Amino acid sequence: MVKRFITVILLIILSVSLSAQPRLARAEIYAGAHGGVTGSMVLFSPVVTGTDNVLSTALLGGNGGLVFRYNGHKYCGLQVEMNYMHRGWRETEESMNIRYNRSLHYVEVPFLFHLYFGSDRHRVFLNAGPQVGYCFSDLSSGNGHPTATEQYKTLDRRFDYGIAVGLGYTARTRDVGSFQIEARFNFSFSNIFSDHKKDWFAQSHPMDLTLNIGYLWEFKGKSKGYKQHGI
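Now predict its structure.
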């Protein structure tokens, strides 16, 4: 309930912000691609018995995808993406020679509010909104803890939903499109393992931090002659 409440409140705040902004005389329409590196982990609760000495660290991977953005209002717009995301976690323990990587490969679709500030050429932006995804590949490598089994079993749930928040910078050029860099945090509300009372895990939420660069081409639309709050 708390997760849903946070998501609904965030969407309401962003929707009100979007509707309150003056419309642009000429909407900004962009399409392009982005990609970069991902550091991901899974938030397990409780920990698995017998793994107290195992260090769980971020699994490094990659991500990339297509971006469509529509800025119809001054300072804010909407952005939709189709992405590939490499998630998972990594376990190490020196004395027992444990090396275990779990790679979860997702296709995901974020629906984001795009808030931007600055000049026509240089902008700082905030992206925030829900995302849905599906794990199409689950691979593991190395040897896990000999007495632990729960986190090494097959995924119970491949469908993913959560929230994404990103902060970035865009440099717009006059003739060759826009270049941007963005750091983004993704947190999944869904669990990858079953969370019923009879199950071990109460929580198993994937989360990741990405650093991406992107290129967007701007399509020049026709001016609609909007004034500050005209429709």
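Confidence is low (pLDDT under 50) at residues 225-231.
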